[in-house]
Write a structure and sequence with these properties.
The protein is α/β, with parallel strands linked by helices. The protein contains 12 helices and 19 strands. It folds into 2 domains: 221 residues, Spore Coat Polysaccharide Biosynthesis Protein SpsA, Chain A (Alpha-Beta Complex); 157 residues, 2-C-methyl-D-erythritol 2,4-cyclodiphosphate synthase (60s Ribosomal Protein L30, Chain: A, 2-Layer Sandwich). Strands 1, 4, 5, 6, 7, 10, 11 and 12 form an 8-stranded mixed sheet that branches. The structure holds cytidine-5'-triphosphate and magnesium ion (MG).
Length: 395
């Protein structure tokens, strides 16, 4: 947005993160949990800091949550001023307003934003700031109600409520600073307010309704993380990777293939147990993750992998997948050899691979083909394997 020319002299933003997030559950308050790979609070703070109109940002956190809050902020973001919150949302807002009022340069206007709303599209912010800048005392983003609304009592429907005059209220909410302070001062201590606009209105001021944005939805329940990510085009995505490997056959060696030992006159030769099928699978999964190949993680020059069972490599990539908040959706393996015949061992391989990867066997396909006597596999000099892995990344 272009630099404003109106009534805003200095705009401060207050981000509220002092709630306990009880309805969302989890091992820490919702604002410190991740959505699409980054914390809810880190995203909320960042999106307001990126607005050129915002001169300073105050972050309100619960007592004892300072470390969690700082950890939740994005690495390259400017460090906001931290203020201790209160028991209710309105108490948290009040302590930030007091802090701003004490500062050498109090703002002329202020935005109040729920730290539990990770996404603030810049055009929604621009709409609010424009209304404020043109002289309004207060502006709030709202969404129309799409569903039919009905009163209910005792499990029975009552009258239908006209929905065209009803709106869902979001944040950030925008105010003249002095007016919001006065509204907080005048509000009865024992009355709970779920937002700030109702306090300003109670003082007799007009609050302008501005078009909100569904991408600004609040995280309230556990299922909202996935839903709000999807609303912002950051839902889960699928990635695929392929792998290919070859090992030489030698008479008298044990044959490890697809995680099981197969009775055969020849076995595969290599640095580890030379399970060519697992090696192709490991490379496919690493490919889907974009994390190099098997040789990067398990260099053949490293003596600790001599004779190593290949399921260890597969366990390693399984853990890499988990660390990326991803899941293996499907793997498809093709083993290329004249002998042994793979069909009789297929289900045992699938069960074993499923066990190592901690996924359902029906997510694992094992196929086999010969090369009609052609090439090194046709001459039974070695076995080749190809794999494709599909992983789902994100919530
Ligand atoms: N908030 C706050 N101080 C409080 C209570 C709430 O700063 N004492 C903040 C929350 O961190 C959140 C916003 O106000 O960003 C909206 O509140 P809500 O969605 O109710 O969050 P929580 O109170 O944390 O959640 P819950 O009510 O489920 O416990
Ligand atoms: Mg609450």
């Amino acid at each position: 947005m272009a630099p404003h020319m109106g009534t805003i002299e200095r705009l401060a933003a207050i981000v509220l993160a002092a709630g306990k997030g009880e309805r969302a559950g989890g091992n820490r308050p919702k604002q410190f949990q991740r959505i699409a790979g980054r914390t809810v609070l880190g995203r909320a703070v960042r999106s307001l800091q990126q607005a050129s109109e915002v001169a300073e940002l105050i972050l309100v956190v619960g007592w004892g949550d300072e470390a969690l809050a700082l950890e939740a902020l994005e690495d390259d973001a400017p460090r906001p001023r931290l203020v201790g919150g209160g028991a209710r949302r309105q108490d948290s807002v009040a302590s930030a307003l007091d802090e701003l009022a004490r500062s050498a340069t109090p703002p002329s206007h202020v935005l109040i934003h729920d730290g539990a709303r990770p996404f603030v599209p810049s055009d929604a912010l621009d709409r609010l700031v424009a209304v404020l800048d043109s002289g309004a005392v207060a502006a709030i983003p709202v969404l129309p109600v799409a569903d039919t609304l009905v009163r209910g009592a005792g499990g029975m429907a009552g009258e239908v409520v006209q929905r065209d005059t009803l709106f869902r209220v979001q944040t950030p909410q925008a105010f003249r600073f002095d007016t919001l302070r006065a509204a907080h001062a005048a509000w009865p201590q024992d009355r709970t307010a779920t937002d700030d606009a109702q306090m300003v209105r109670a003082l007799g001021h007009e609050v302008v309704l501005v078009a909100g944005d569904q991408r600004m939805e609040k995280i309230t329940l556990a299922e909202d993380f996935a839903r709000v990510a999807v609303l912002n085009g950051m839902g889960p995505e699928f990635r695929t990777g392929m792998g290919y490997d070859v090992h030489r056959l030698e008479e008298g060696l044990p044959l490890w293939l697809g995680g099981i030992e197969v009775a055969h006159s020849h076995g595969l030769e290599g640095h580890s147990d030379a399970d060519v099928a697992i090696h192709a699978l490991v490379d496919a999964i690493l490919g889907a993750l974009g994390e190099g190949d098997i040789g990067v993680h398990f260099p053949p020059s490293d003596p600790q992998w001599r004779g190593a069972p290949s399921f260890r490599f597969l366990e390693f990539v399984r853990d890499r997948v988990a660390a990326r908040n991803a899941r293996i959706t499907h793997v498809d393996l093709t083993i290329i050899c004249e002998a042994p015949r793979i069909g009789p061992h297929r289900d045992r391989m699938r069960a074993r691979l499923a066990d190592i990867l901690s996924i359902d066997p029906d997510r694992i396909s094992v196929k086999a083909t010969t090369t009609e006597g052609l090439g090194f596999t046709g001459r039974r000099e070695g076995i080749a394997a190809q794999a494709i892995a599909t992983i789902r990344v994100g919530d």
